[in-house]
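Field log, afternoon session.

UNIT: design team B
ACTIVITY: writing a sequence onto a fixed backbone
BACKBONE:
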């Protein structure tokens, strides 16, 4: 099944030519108005969520996206380079990417297949701090609190990224 196409009049035109459908934000559904999240709400959802997609910049490939578990503490995100999951090396490409270009994005989202009124996403713009040992301990403790697999802190290191901005969207308030 093909996804519908959105056009300027806010009508979804289906690729198969069947009858178009209107967005839920129309007058028929006044309680389902999409909303841009406030900075505080976006930060709260980022801190409460348990995994996301870290996007860094690879010199040859461009965008380099990988799923990550993370923790937030005092305006910073910690991502463990752990010893739990099998790796060919603890020198990960994401870390090499960050050393070459410290900009990153962490995208988190909530998907509900049956209720699209519950959809939301938050995008955090990040800046890699390199050897930020003053923040690593707090973030390592947060990671150990959040994930049973990390209780013994099986970390080669914790990557520390400062949150420089957040934005987000929710299907309804």
């Amino acid at each position: 099944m093909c996804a519908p196409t959105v056009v300027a009049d806010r009508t979804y035109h289906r690729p198969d030519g069947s009858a178009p459908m209107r967005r839920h934000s129309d007058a028929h559904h006044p309680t389902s108005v999409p909303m841009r999240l406030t900075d505080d709400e976006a930060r709260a959802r980022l801190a409460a969520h348990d995994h996301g997609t870290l996007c860094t910049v690879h010199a040859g490939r461009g965008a380099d996206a990988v799923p990550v578990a993370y923790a937030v503490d005092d305006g910073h995100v910690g991502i463990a380079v752990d010893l739990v999951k099998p790796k060919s090396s603890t020198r990960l490409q994401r870390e090499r990417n960050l050393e070459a270009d410290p900009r990153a994005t962490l995208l988190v989202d909530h998907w509900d297949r049956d209720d699209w009124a519950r959809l939301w996403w938050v995008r955090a713009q990040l800046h890699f701090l390199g050897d930020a040992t003053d923040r690593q301990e707090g973030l390592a403790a947060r990671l150990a609190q959040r994930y049973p697999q990390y209780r013994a802190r099986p970390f080669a290191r914790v990557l520390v990224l400062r949150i420089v901005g957040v934005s987000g969207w929710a299907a309804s308030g």
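LOG NOTE: The longest strand covers residues 155-170.
NEXT ACTIVITY: expression trials, pending approval
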